[in-house]
Specification:
single chain
């Protein structure tokens, strides 16, 4: 163990390059064999298993994006809540949701080992809780008092978001323990982002048809929203459960871990690798929502076509699906995941500037630029998420503790922190 730690003092995990990550893979496999494990951790998931894993992020995205698109409208125009009440709800819940993530990740890492898979159990709990919470959120009874409607809205939005955090954190941790092969982790991250891209597009494409069908006309009703969200939540719940069939957790902790909150913070910030991941994810949130905010303002007040935002969001989602695959091969060519992410970031910035500096009637160019930004956005995320498992391997070998949940929750916190800087509401 001491010899391994000495070797690792100069190794920066997959956060720097593939060759060094392969050293980690070999060390982990030797340690597993010494402990009597017959399980090979350098697993290569077949295509079908990767698609099953993709279902998990698709399930999360179709539910969360529908809520993002329609919650404010439903709360004010259908339920009859004041705009101030809905805005206050969003501010309170989203800020609580961001700060609870690191605590939630630490709790997951401290849970006792489960022969069936520690993280798979919580993926199921999270996705079912999310589906139930969001389905009940879009319920409305005209006989309810204003206070009861407001309480109902607050309670189930809070519960739905909490369950979504459980799902996201446990899903991200599950991704890191499916294999120790660094290239395979990039491939799995690729399918994760494909699921995100498709899941972000589907609500925009199908929501109007579902709302119209369940409302019985073009005027949306509470029944229409309830029916539409139930469709999304049922699909999300089924696919979210199927996701856990993607594979066994091959990197496991034999005993229950004792990790204090202080240690949780240390794992997130004391290692150079985890600091890089945190900073990269903050910039990812800034870049993504900064582009969204500026583009929405630009389309409304400069181009004069605010409705174009929905179309461009679909094109961005198409780029997301394509970019996930591009990033994996760029990581493989450069043998350096941070460098791949930096290259994608520069291309993202160039496409963003081109879009805003182009003539206001260049609609085709706007779409092309959004596809390119979607490609790069997915690529950046693939580079970041595929580094998580490599960093967790390094910490495990140095300190003997597996902290996939802590590292994943640190990324979600960093992303939400970046978002809050540009979207205080």
């Amino acid at each position: 163990m001491h010899n391994n730690v000495h070797k690792l003092d100069t190794i920066h995990s997959g956060v720097v390059n593939f060759d060094q990550s392969m050293i980690l893979e070999n060390i982990i496999n030797r340690k597993m064999r010494k402990r009597g494990s017959r399980m090979n951790t350098n697993v290569k998931l077949p295509l079908g298993r990767k698609i099953l894993f993709m279902f998990g992020m698709f399930a999360n995205a179709i539910m969360v994006y529908f809520i993002t698109y329609y919650l404010s409208y439903f709360g004010t125009d259908i339920v009859g809540l004041s705009a101030a009440s809905v805005t206050l709800l969003l501010v309170i819940v989203k800020n609580i949701n961001a700060y609870q993530d690191p605590i939630l990740g630490g709790i997951l890492d401290r849970l006792p080992p489960n022969p069936k898979g520690k993280y798979r159990t919580w993926i199921i709990i999270g996705v079912l809780g999310c589906a139930i919470g969001y389905s009940l959120l879009f319920s409305d009874n005209p006989n309810w008092s204003y206070g009861l409607k407001l309480a109902w809205f607050y309670v189930f939005y809070t519960l739905g978001n909490f369950a979504a955090s459980i799902h996201t954190t446990s899903y991200g941790a599950y991704q890191q323990v499916l294999t120790t092969d660094t290239d395979e982790r990039s491939a799995i991250s690729m399918w994760r982002m494909v699921g995100t891209g498709i899941g972000s597009v589907v609500p925009g494409l199908l929501a109007v048809a579902l709302l119209t069908a369940f409302s019985g006309g073009e005027e949306y009703t509470a029944k229409g929203f309830s029916g539409a969200v139930i469709v999304y939540c049922v699909i999300g719940a089924i696919l979210g459960v199927l996701c856990t069939k993607a594979g066994k957790e091959v990197v496991i902790q034999k005993q229950r871990q004792k990790i204090s909150l202080k240690e949780t913070a240390r794992y997130m910030f004391s290692y150079r690798q985890s600091r890089w991941l945190t900073i990269a994810m903050i910039f990812n949130g800034l870049m993504f929502y900064g582009r969204l905010s500026v583009q929405a303002y630009w389309l409304r007040y400069v181009v004069g076509v605010p409705t174009l935002m929905a179309s461009l969001t679909v094109w961005y989602g198409v780029g997301n699906c394509c970019g996930a695959a591009t990033a994996r091969y760029l990581c493989r060519i450069l043998k350096n995941k941070p460098m791949a992410s930096i290259c994608m970031s520069l291309l993202y910035a160039a496409a963003c500037l081109t879009c805003f500096l182009a003539p206001t009637d260049a609609l085709t160019l706007f779409k092309i630029c959004n596809v390119i930004m979607g490609v790069c956005g997915a690529g950046i995320s693939v580079g970041i998420y595929s580094c998580l498992g490599d960093t967790a391997d390094l910490i495990q070998l140095k300190e003997g503790k597996r902290v996939d949940g802590t590292l994943m929750s640190g990324l979600t916190f960093a992303n939400k922190f970046g978002v809050r800087l540009l979207r205080p509401r």
